[in-house]
Write a structure and sequence with these properties.
This protein is an alpha+beta fold. It has two domains: 74 residues, Alpha-Beta Plaits (2-Layer Sandwich); 131 residues, no CATH class. It contains five helices and eight strands. Strands 3, 4, 5 and 6 form a four-stranded antiparallel sheet that branches. The chain has a two-stranded antiparallel ribbon with strand order 1-2. A two-stranded antiparallel ribbon has the order 7-8. The chain is flat, with a radius of gyration of 23 Å.
Length: 220
């Protein structure tokens, strides 16, 4: 996988690289599935690498997957680490920044469940986070708001509570950062230049709030 990553990452940032052994009926060897963020990068990699000996004796057969399924899969938002990876690649490490506007503890009880005639309460830790992402060279600022939560099995254990709180804070910040990045559209041109647009289709009601209103926001 390391050799594959080194060879194909030259054409653009990679989302994932997975190498697998061939099925028994196909004979000895390996096949790999390499996912690019950009279809253009994938096409360039296919044209340049198909039939070439990149790091092995026999030439590689490289093709672009065009298989279509009978249904449209749900489009999931990129995780925050993937968003940062793309931003660093196309905008540069100094081309963007983020800051936490607010990170609130909105913990409480999830509610009551009836079991064998007894009322049970399950405690959870919840944090609400608002993040702003700024691209100063393009005059674009976006916000993301997200809720992170986790259940606590033993709410009386201080160590478990602190550990869960830290994990939930990190989760809330990551989800909020991802939400903010979903409103940024990167247009990569053939000459390598990058244009940035604000995607208004991803706007949320919280985008119209002031920072003070966001800091006072409580979500249950």
């Amino acid at each position: 996988q390391h050799s594959l990553f080194s060879a194909f990452s030259k054409f653009g940032p990679l989302y994932s690289v997975r190498a697998r052994r061939n099925a028994a009926v196909a004979g000895p060897g390996y096949y790999a599935v390499i996912k690019f963020y950009s279809a253009g990068d994938a096409s360039r990699a296919q044209r340049a690498c198909n039939g070439q000996r990149l790091f092995q004796k026999s030439p590689l057969k490289v093709c672009v997957c065009t298989k279509e399924k009978g249904f449209q899969p749900q489009v999931l938002a990129l995780k925050s680490n993937k968003c940062q990876e793309l931003a660093n690649h196309y905008l540069g490490f100094n081309g963007w920044s983020s800051r936490i506007i607010t990170l609130q503890n909105v913990s409480g009880f999830d509610g009551e469940n009836e079991e064998l005639g007894k009322t049970l309460q399950k405690r959870s830790v919840k944090y609400l986070c608002a993040v702003e992402v700024s691209l100063p060279n393009h005059g674009v600022r976006t916000r993301g708001v997200a809720l992170g939560e986790a259940d606590i099995e033993n709410g009386d254990d201080p160590l478990e509570f602190v550990t869960a709180s830290r994990r939930v804070q990190k989760l809330a910040v990551g989800k909020a950062l991802s939400s903010a990045f979903q409103k940024i559209l990167l247009v990569v041109l053939e000459n390598g230049k990058v244009a940035v647009e604000y995607s208004s289709s991803q706007e949320e009601p919280t985008d119209s709030l002031t920072e003070e209103e966001l800091k006072g926001l409580v979500q249950v």
